[in-house]
C-alpha cells in the first residue's frame, strides 16, 4: 500500500522503467487524441490557434467576473486549454466530496473515456493511490511511469489502452488553503520527470480550476443571497452611515406600505419613536454604534398610520478601516402577536369586570412601591375595602345587579385617589388601594372618610336604588408591617375590625386588632377539628308551659369545650363556623343528637317533650343540611312530631325566598317552626303573615325590662297579642325572675325559658328533670285523688 516515505512537502518523483515501445504508445496516443487531429498541418495550426483564442477569451471573461457557465463546463474549458498547449496532456479534475471520503471526477479529457469509470469515484481511505494522497495531504505527486507503478497496478490495462505513461497531480487549494480536489495531467509521451514549464502549467491549471470553482460557488451564493433578499418574508432595509435608505426589499413595502421609490435616498424615519417603556431609536443607534448590533421589539407606523410592532435586528457593516459603511435593518411584523400578547397580559393582570388591576398585578406593584418606600423613607398606605351587604344584593337582585354594583364601586374608588395610587379588585367584593409616598398621615383618614361617604351613596339600577357601604382596614408601611405579606394581613385584620364594629367605617391597624385577629385565627384552627376531636356536646334548656309550669319543650344548645381554652361561647364560635363553612357539618351533628334524645324521651310518656334545634340560615342556603334532614325525616316519619326548628329573625331570613321555601318544606314534614330572637331584626308584620311559623320567641332583651320597664311591657304585650291574632304561640326567652314569669303569665304569654326554670343542662340532667317532673305530677295526681 502507498504512500511511499517521500510523500512530503516536496514534489514526489516516482520513477520506473518503461516496458512499452514508444511507437506503440504514439500510435495509441494518436488514436486516443484523434478528435483533436485535423487534416493538414496548416489547418491543424489554425484550429489550435482558434481553440486557444476561444479559450483565452472565455478564461479572460472568467477572470473579469463575467457570468460563467456551469461549473463543470468551465473545468472542461480549462482542460481543453491545457491540452491545446500540450498535445501529450490528458487532464482530469477531481473534487473531494463533502464528507471528505471520496474523490469525485468532475471533468476529464474526452480521450480518457476508457479510464473514466475507474477514476470517477475514488474512496480516499481505501484507495490511497497517488491521486488520493495528493488530495489528502495537499502534495504535488508525479508518477513518471504508470506502467510499473504499484499505485496504478489496478489500472495498468486501462492506462495502457489509453496510451498513458505518466501522471502529474496538483492539489487544488481553495483561497482558505484547504485542499478541495486535484488537477491531474496524464501524459502519453515518454516517461520522465516534468520540466519546470510543465510544472508551472500544472500549477496554473490547478489555480484556474480553483478560481473557476470558487467563482462558481460565489456566484451561486450571490444568486442565493439575491433570491433570499427578494423573496424574504422579513423586511430588509439597508441604510448608509448617516442612516439614509440605500435599498429596501419587496417585504419592506409589503410590511410598511412604503414603495421603494418613496424611501430610497431619504433619511430612515421608520423607527424614530418607541413606545413608553422601550428604548428610543436614538438610544438603539448608540448601542448599535458601540456594539455593532441590536435586536428587539420596536414600534413603527404603517404608511396608512396604523401602529406597527416589529421585531428588529440591526447590524452595522464596517468598511476596510472599521468605520460604519452600512446598516442592515431586518424586521418582521409582530403587531398581531403583540396584540394577542397584550390581550393575554391584560387578561392575566386585569379584572375583566371592573378593568381594575387584579390581585397578581396589584401584588407586583405593591412590592415595587414597598421597595421605593424603603428607599425614600416615605409612608405607604394600604386600604383593604370590603363591601357591606354585597352578598345580599347578589343573592336577591341577581348577578347582573351585583356586577353593576362592583363596576360602580370601582369607578367611585378610582375617583377617590391620585394618579400614582393603585386601586385593584382582589376578588368578590374585596377592593384594595395602595397609596404610596404619603407625607402627611392625616390625609389618609380624610381619604378613608371620603371613600366611606362615596360608597354609601345609593346606586341607580333600572328603576331601583341599591345601597351598600364599605368596611375599610388601613395598614401603613413601615409602621405596621415591614413586608408585603404582613402589610396585607394587617390591613385585612383592620378591615374585619371595621366589620365587627358595625360596618360602614374605617379602622386603622393596631396591636389589639392584631391580637384579637390572631386569637380568632387560633379559634378557627381549633374549630376545624373540634367535631372530630369530640369536643362538642349538646345541652338542653327546658321550656315551660306558663299555664301549668310543666316542661313541655327543650332547646338543644351546642357547647364547645376546648382542652386548653376551656368553654367557648356559642355566640363566639357559631358565627365563625358560619363564616368558614363548618356550620353545616356541625349543625347536622346537633340534629342527630336532638333526634336521638327526642326519640329516647319520646318513647316514655313521662319524659316526652319537643326538642327545638337552632338552624342557621346559611345551613338552609347552601342546601346540605336541608337535604340531609329532610331525607332523614322522610324515612323516620315519627321523629318530626318531637322536633322544632328555631331560626333567627334576621336579614337573610327576611329576604330569602329560598330559606322560606325550605322551612316550609320542613313544616310539611311535620316539624314546627319557631322565630327566634323576635324583636331584634326587622320584625316585619307582613313577613309574619307570609311566613307560617308556629312560635315566636321574644328576645331576652325585652324580657330583661320586665316587670318595670313600661316600653318592654308594651312591646311584649303587643307581640303576644299580635301573635295570638295570627295563630302563633309565644315563648319568652331569658326569664330569670319570678316577677318576669308572673307578668308574662298575666299578659298571656304561652311559654317561658330561662335560668328561673333551668340553665341549659347535659342530656342526663335533662332526663332527670323530666323524670322528676313526672314523679311530681303523679304525686300531685295521687294527692288530688285522695
Ligand atoms: P338562642 O337560640 O337565642 O339561645 C338562647 C340563648 O340564651 C342560649 O345561649 C341560652 O343559654 C341563653 N339563655 C337562656 N336562658 C337565659 C337566661 O335566663 N339568662 C341569660 N343570660 N341567658 C339565657 P347560648 O347557649 O349561649 O346560645 C347562644 C346562641 O347560639 C343561641 O341563641 C343560638 O342562636 C346559638 N346556638 C346555640 N346552639 C346552636 C346550634 O346548635 N346551632 C345554631 N345554629 N346556633 C346555635
Ligand atoms: Mg334558639
Ligand atoms: Mg334566642
UniProtKB/TrEMBL annotation:
Ranges where the PAC domain occurs: 294-346
Residue ranges annotated for the GGDEF domain, each copy included: 378-511
Superkingdom to which the source organism belongs: Bacteria
Cofactor(s) demanded: Mg(2+)
Molecular function via GO: catalytic activity
InterPro entries, per the entry: Biofilm_reg_signaling (IPR052155), EAL_dom (IPR001633), EAL_sf (IPR035919), GAF (IPR003018), GAF-like_dom_sf (IPR029016), GGDEF_dom (IPR000160), Nucleotide_cyclase (IPR029787), PAS (IPR000014)
Name assigned to this protein: EAL domain-containing protein
Species assigned in the record: Candidatus Methylospira mobilis
Native organism taxonomy: Bacteria, Pseudomonadati, Pseudomonadota, Gammaproteobacteria, Methylococcales
